Every structure is written in structure tokens, then in C-alpha cells.
Amino acid sequence: MKKTFQLLEDHGITYEFVDYKKEKPNEELLKRFSNNVGMDQLVNRKGTTYRKLTDDQKAALDTETTAIRLLSENSSMIKRPLIQFPDGELIVGLQEAAIIKKAKG
């Protein structure tokens, strides 16, 4: 996240940071995110939280309803950064050129 903050600040892009580890996202928000970018992009399958899941929990990520519930309970499995623009478009991951282009749009 530090790189993302630095990128935004270097380009004079204002933002509001929401820490999903402290402020758990609700299922409605996660469903909107999933509808926008897909569950595959939303779930961080490389992180420690994912690796600690049981096989049953990992299998639950294959179904949107159970995946959303699991992400709501384990918000550190949401890929970061997850940038939502005023028009609702999302960019997942540190895609510098796409972030700058959209923000300066």
C-alpha cells in the first residue's frame, strides 16, 4: 500500500483510504466489487490468510455467495490496492499507468 499512496501523492491524486482490515466490508459492497472485476481478481490467493484456509474454505471461494461471506470475515484476503473511482470503476492491484490514466482521465 505504501507504493500506492506514494504514487497517488506524487501525481497529486486525492483519495480516501479505507482500511478493510479495521473496517470490515459488508457483503453488499463485496458483491458489487465481484460483479465489477470478478472474484478471481478480488481474492488474494498469494497471501498468508489464503494459505491458512482449510481445503473446504478454499473450495468455498469457487461459489460467489460463500466467497463473499468468507471475504467479509477475512478481509485481508482482498487484493490490494483496490481502487474505486467516482464512476464506480475498480482497478485491482498496483497498475500504475491505469491508475494514473483513470485518475487524470
- The percent range for helix content is 40-55%
* Helical segment count: 7
Query: C-alpha Rg, in Å?
Result: 14 Å
Low-pLDDT runs: none
Strand order of the largest sheet: 1-2
Structural class based on helices, strands and sheet pairing:
mainly alpha
Question: Which properties best describe this structure?
Answer:
mainly alpha; two-stranded antiparallel sheet; 105 residues
Protein model, in words:
By secondary structure, the chain is mostly helical. 50% of the residues lie in helices and 6% in strands. It contains 7 helices and 2 strands; from the N terminus they run H-H-H-H-H-H-E-E-H. A two-stranded antiparallel ribbon has the order 1-2. Helix 2 packs across helix 6 (64-73). It is elongated and about 45 Å long. 12% of the residues are buried. The model has no long low-confidence stretch (mean pLDDT 94).
Give the secondary structure arrangement, pairings included.
Layout: H1 2-10, H2 27-37, H3 39-42, H4 48-51, H5 55-60, H6 64-73, E1 82-84, E2 90-92, H7 96-104
Antiparallel strand pairs: 1-2
Helix pairs in contact: 2-6
Offer a concise description of the structure:
This protein has 105 residues and is mainly α.
